[in-house]
C-alpha cells in the first residue's frame, strides 16, 4: 500500500471512530424535557400527557409545567396540555430554582420532585382545581396534603425580605464577615470583592447582588449589600441560622420526601390535624432539633426521620400512633430514649425503627405504656401536664443547646480545577470563551459534556493513539518511538534470533542427510 493510501486510510479511520462515538453517546443522552401520553396515570384515572423526565442544565433555572414542549423546553404546544407529573421526574437536580405549575395539571406524584438542590419555590396557577401553593410551598387544593417544602426556601425568604423591606426579618442570620470593595468601575469593584470573598463568586452572581441587593452562592449562605456608592460597596456575608416552619392547621398528611434533605430547618411545628407522616418525609434534615408529634397522628412512615442527628435527648410518641415504619429514626444518634404511650401489642413496629449506636447489636428498648409526665421528667422539665399537640405552647427544653447545623459545605474554596479554569481564561481568553459558549449550547440541548470529555479522554484518544502508532510503525518499518540504545539492543536480539534460526536449520539438514 502506498503512503498516500495509508494516510487516507488513517483519516477515514479517525472519522469513522469519531462518528461512532458521537452517535453512540447521543443515542443514550436524555433530552432536557420528556413527555409521554399515558392512560390511567398511577391508577388515578387521569389520561393525557405526562411529564415523565427532566435532565436539567445551567439554562433551566425556571421550569414551566403546562404544555408539552420540545426537548429543550421551548415551543409549548397548547393543543397538548400536561395533566400529570410522574414519580422521580426531577431527581437530584442542581439547577432549577423555580417551578411553575399550570392549571391543567391534575396529578402530581408525591415523589415527583426529589432533592432539587437549588429549588426556592413552587408556584401553582390560581385556576388549578387540584393544587395550590402558599408562599412557594406545594399543597393539594384542599390543603389536606403538604407535598413539597423547597430545599432553598430560606433563600426565597431572604430575597423577598430584601425586596420588600431592604432587610432580612423573617429568618435569623449569623454574620460571618464584612467586605468593603472599591474601584474605578464595576469591573474593578468586582475584582476587589472577588479577591476578598471567601467563596468563589462569579460575575453573574455579583451582578445579581448589585441588582437585587443580595445573592446566595450556596444553600443558606448570603451576601447582602449594606452600603453602596458609585465606586464602592460594603457587603455582609451571613448564614441563615434559625429557619423554622409551621405546617398550617388543617393539613392531614405530610407527603413522602416532603422535607427531604432540608438541612437548614431547625424546627418543625406539626399541627394537631396531621394524621400521617410519609416515608422519608424528614430524611436527613440534619438541623432539626425540636419535633413534637401531635395526638391524633396515626402513622409514621419508613425512614421518616432518618439521620436527623440534631434531635436530642428523648421523643414522645402519642397513643394514637398505630404504625411506625422501618428505620423511622435510624441514625438519630442524639435521641437517648423513646417514650411510647401505647402498649407494644397495640402498635406495628418496622425493623430497626430506633437508632443504633455504632458497633451496637441492639438499640436500647423503647419505654411502652409511658406517660407524657415520664417524658418531661426525663428531659428535666417540670412534671406539670403539658399537651404536646398544642403548637403555641413552648416545646420541651433540653439540657443542652441544639447543635448548629452542619456547615462544612458552605465554605467552598477554589479547587485545582477552578484554578486551571481561571488560568486558561486569563491566558487564552478567546479560545476559552468559544469553548465556554460551546459547552453552554451543548448542555442546553441535554448533552452531558463531562461524559463526552471522559469518553474522548479515556476511550477515543487512547484507541486512536494506538491505531495511529501501529499504522505508522508498519508504514516506516521502524519503531520511531524507541531510543537509539533500545534500537541497538533490539537489532542485536534480532541478529541473535536469526543466527539461532540458521543453526537450527543447518542442524536439521545434517540430521536429514545422515538418515539418508
Structure write-up:
Helices cover 30% and strands 23% of the residues. It has helices at 3-28, 153-165, 186-196, 203-212, 372-378, 416-427, 429-444, 449-476, 484-515; strands at residues 33-38, 48-54, 62-65, 67-68, 77-85, 90-91, 98-101, 107-108, 113-114, 121-124, 131-134, 137-140, 145-148, 173-182, 214-218, 221-228, 232-240, 243-246, 253-254, 265-269, 276-277, 290-291, 299-300, 313-317, 323-324, 335-340, 348-349. The strands form seven sheets. The chain has an eight-stranded mixed beta sheet, with no helix packed on it. Strands 1, 2, 4, 5 and 8 form a five-stranded mixed beta sheet that branches. A four-stranded antiparallel beta sheet has the order 14-17-16-15. Helix 1 (3-28) runs antiparallel to helix 8 (449-476) and helix 6 packs across helix 7. The model is unreliable at 382-413 (pLDDT under 50).
Characteristic key phrases:
516 residues, alpha/beta, eight-stranded mixed beta sheet, five-stranded mixed beta sheet, 9 helices
Count of DSSP H/I helices: 9
| Mean pLDDT rating | 83
- Assembly type of the shown chains? single chain
Secondary-structure-derived class: alpha/beta
In short:
This protein is α/β, with parallel strands linked by helices.
Q: What topology emerges from the helices and strands here?
A:
Elements: H1 3-28, E1 33-38, E2 48-54, E3 62-65, E4 67-68, E5 77-85, E6 90-91, E7 98-101, E8 107-108, E9 113-114, E10 121-124, E11 131-134, E12 137-140, E13 145-148, H2 153-165, E14 173-182, H3 186-196, H4 203-212, E15 214-218, E16 221-228, E17 232-240, E18 243-246, E19 253-254, E20 265-269, E21 276-277, E22 290-291, E23 299-300, E24 313-317, E25 323-324, E26 335-340, E27 348-349, H5 372-378, H6 416-427, H7 429-444, H8 449-476, H9 484-515
Parallel strand pairs: 2-5, 3-7, 5-8, 6-9, 7-10, 13-19, 18-20, 19-21, 20-22, 21-23, 23-25, 24-26, 25-27
Antiparallel strand pairs: 1-2, 4-5, 11-12, 12-13, 14-17, 15-16, 16-17
